[in-house]
Structure formats: structure tokens, C-alpha cells
């Protein structure tokens, strides 16, 4: 019979085997349960990988910034429209930095396969309070309206909000550095601060040494004296030997005039309250007697005055009453002999019509018995009575020039600035400020598309001297309109022109170079912040009375403002302005910033020669033998039309190349060549 040691050994083995069995059975259960409790742990199935972004490291309070964030589909399934909507979700607080939209979803006609990238557009609006803020984004799916399921790996970036123009109080100043070309490194006192364009905010008044470096150009430096309540602007052209220029300007908001402007509503309310209070005070004759000297000096501004019965009377009403057809004695004589004197005046009055005498008789009959006589209200003093016409509002729905009645409370129409089959442009004056604006009102009554609203939102954020300023946009159920900057245009050979479209061409060479330089400056600014035009034509280039050019037409509702999509509709554009990649993307690639350079080249070519490039008219003007069909893809150089334009052949050839790789890569390169022509 086995002993106690044998049973003890069996028991220990049983315990060990049981523990091992429980361990290997429990771990998978825990793992599986944990996986399903947290859906975001399925990183192999739904997974997004951050690639890049255009978020600046510092943004200015009071401005708006269009940005893009690029993510790669690193999961096992494609991102496309279905029961679940894929997109990039902003997971921060709207109270800190406002981000629109909160969920930037992939359009219904886009499918992002695995290992493919997609750029999501957003618009950032920083708060007025400067400081450091975190922006957090994550790929997510959405079911229904607000049910989001974020992926596991998110993206967070810390940015700094600086005050408007870099100055938060009147005790400090700022330095704003801008360079040509941009993206140059800025150092202050040997410490790297960032790349241009750059704002160095809230600097104590002192002298600072600023160094600007670029890998392709010589280093430049300058000394800047920062003053309290001022901004010092440093402009440096790295492509020339010129020294950096420094301009210091006192900010209006830190001057007495700026304080008045900032507090103007409060000042107006205070003045109105004091004025009304003074009027009420002057009604009380016991407090300020009638013969007091103050009444003699304030009588011109008194709207109300007291009467013997203790009630206030408006002075204007009393004056108008004195102008009536009846004698004042017949209504204001309140003495003991007032009634007899009134009767006497009626009996001895030899003037007036029978109707007036009948009114006086009715007055006497009603007032017999003495006492204070009260005037009888009649219509004799106002024989013409204005009665509202119930049909008048319907008649005024469209008044002068067809201007909508619904906008008359905001704008005063001054004339028609232009029109086409899609919209009409009015010259108007704002009734609240008196400013003159250009109001573009659509002819078709339809709601604005989501793309058009996004485009106008980005356009409103563009601030550049060579881009038309969009002040307001509204998309109502029955009307859509844009409120733009009004430029005025120029008068040439007896005709008024608001854009390059109707301007007779060709024009003088130095004017052509100057206009193209203006357009290129505006497009460079847009390209630097990730915005493309894609539909640039002569009709989108507006003119000032001093023959300066400004770019318009960023909002069309047809494309994503430069964010690459395949369905950019250019069918309504003139054929000469459509780039090769817009006609045939399979052969020439997708549109990009070089598309805008090509379209700018079309404008330049027409201003110099009077013809459109790659056109039968240009081929015929060159005098070349053969048929245009055999040379349709050959560019006729400007010198082949006019020999004195030979100096422009290289720049035009580089702008209008059918291959994108042969064109200018950046607007900076084009501007450098244009500046060389202007100096020559």
C-alpha cells in the first residue's frame, strides 16, 4: 500500500497541471475579449498613417488659415463611401482653435486603396488669446450623424498663436520678416527662429540683429530697432545684392485714435444717454428756471421744452402747428376773455374758404362754456395724406437695373459693373459704412454647393495686394451673391475696362510685364499657402485706375481650390486657357501649381502678340508654310509674329511648354526672370 509521500507527490502534480491548463485557456479568452472591447485595437484592419501637413508652426490671431493633412491608408481595406464614411476627425476643442469642418470626409466618388495617400482640407481660425495650443486629428469612420469611431494612431501638433501683427500690448513691439524667395531661415542673435514669412512677436524695445540664410543664395543680415507699440517690417531680396530694407510703423490700435475706434460703440452709447438725459432734465422748469442763462446757450439743441400745463412738447411740432391755416389765437387763448376774443376773431375774419369757416363754427360750438380750450384735430393742415400702396412692395422687388429688393436694406445700387450668362455685377454702396463694393449676384436661383461654400471660405482668408478681397458671401434659398472689393477699372480709347478680357491687345511691352508681375505675385502668395486657381483667364484679372492687376475668380464651385481632384470642370473655360494636363491627364499628368503658370503664360502671350498660343490665328500671323493641323502642338514664338519680341521668347517658351517638367517649377523663378526684364 502506498505511503503518504506517494499521495503527496500525486497531489502536487495535479495542482501544477491544473494551473498550467487554466493559464493557457484564460489568456486567449482575455486577449479576444480585450480586442472586441476596444474596436480601435484592430489596427491591421482599419489603420491610417500620418504622412505630412501644411500647418504652420505659428498662426496670427484674427486670421484664417487653409491647411491640408495627408494620411496614408495603411490598413487592409480601402477607404470609400458606404455605410461607414471615412474621414479625418478633429479631436480638439473648438473653444481653443476653431477647425472647420470637424470631420473632413472622403467624397463619395473617391476610393483610397491601401498604401495610397489622401489630403484632407481644413480651415483654422485661431482665438484672440495668444499662447500654445494642441491640434489633434485621427482617421475615423462615421455612422449616422455623430457616431465616430477613431482609429488607434492619431496625430497631434503643437502650434503657437501670436497676437495680431505680433504685438499684444503697447509696451512691446514685433518684427515681421519677408524674403524673396520665401522659406529662408531667420536667426535672431544667433538663435534660429523659423522660416520666412515669419513674425517675431512681443519683443521688448531694443536693437536686434536679424540674419536671413538660404541654401541657394548668400546670407544677409541687418539690425532692427524695435519700438513699443510698433511693428518693424524687414524685406530682403536674396536674389540681388541689395541690403535688407527695414520699415517701422506705429500700430493704430495703440494710439489715441485707435482707442477711440476700438471703443466707438461704447462712446456713441454714452453720448446718446447723456444727450437724452439732458433733454429730460431741461423739461423740468423747477430745477432749471426758464430764464436761466444755460437755456439761452442750449436752446439750439433742445428737442423738448416745457409748457404751462406741465407737459413736455416737441418744439418741432409747435412750429409746424404755427404754420397751419387757422389763427393761433383761436386755439391757445385761455384767459377769462378768451372765448369772446375767439368769437371776435372768427366774426372779423374775412379770409378763408367756406370749409374753413365751417370748421371754426364747429370749434366754437364744442368749446362754449369757457375753460381751457382744446384744439380740434382736423385734416385741414395736412390735406395730402400718404396711404401705403399694398402693391408697392411687389412693384419694387426688382427696381433700377434689376437690383433685388431683398438687398436694398444693405446696399444702394450705383450701376452695373458687368454681366454674363451666370451672374451680374453691380457697383453698390454699403448703407452702414458708405464703402463702395462690387456685388456679384447669380442669375440662377439655386442653393450654393458645398464646394462653392468651401471655396469662398478660403477666398475670404486670402489677404494680398494682388488678390481681389472677398468681404462677404451668402447662399440663400432664392439668391446667392458675393461682396467683393471694387476696383474701378481704366478708360482706354474711349471705352471703360474693368478686366483684361476686353482690353485691346497687344499692349505695350512694359505694361504687359508689369501686369504679369502683379498676377504672379498674387498667385505666388496663394501657392505658398497651398491654394491653386486652375481657371485663370483674362476675365479673372481685374484692373485698378492705375493699371495694376488683381486676381479674382477663386470661387467657381467646380474644383477644390487647388486640392487635386479628377473632376475639375474646365469645359466652360476658353479652350486656349485649358492646360494640357486638364485636357488629357493620362498623357500629361495631374494639375498642379504649374497649371496656373501655363494659364498665366497664355495671358502673357496674348498681351504681347494679340493672339492666343497654339491657335490658327497665331500660326497664320507667323507666315509659316503648311497647315496648322500639322503644327498644332508647336508654339509660335512671339518673335515669329513681331521680331522685337525676341527677348521674351525664352520666358514664354518656359511658361507654355506642353510638358509640365519643362515649365517653371515655382512662381519665384518666374518672378526672378520678370524682375530682370523690368530692370532692363
Automatic annotation (TrEMBL):
The keyword Cell cycle does not apply. Pfam families: PEGA, Pkinase. Keywords: Membrane, Transmembrane, Transmembrane helix. Residues 310-323, 357-369 have a biased composition (Basic and acidic residues). Residues 411-680 form the Protein kinase domain. Residues 307-386 are annotated as: Disordered. Coiled coil: none annotated. One of its GO terms (cellular component) is cytoplasm. SUPFAM superfamilies: Protein kinase-like (PK-like). The chain crosses the membrane at residues 12-32, 257-282. InterPro entries: Ig-like_fold (IPR013783), Kinase-like_dom_sf (IPR011009), PEGA (IPR013229), Prot_kinase_dom (IPR000719), Ser_Thr_kinase (IPR053235). GO terms for molecular function: ATP binding; protein kinase activity. The keyword Membrane applies. PANTHER family: MITOGEN-ACTIVATED KINASE KINASE KINASE (PTHR24361), SPORULATION-SPECIFIC PROTEIN 1 (PTHR24361:SF678). This is Protein kinase domain-containing protein. The lineage of its organism: Archaea, Methanobacteriati, Methanobacteriota, Stenosarchaea group, Methanomicrobia.
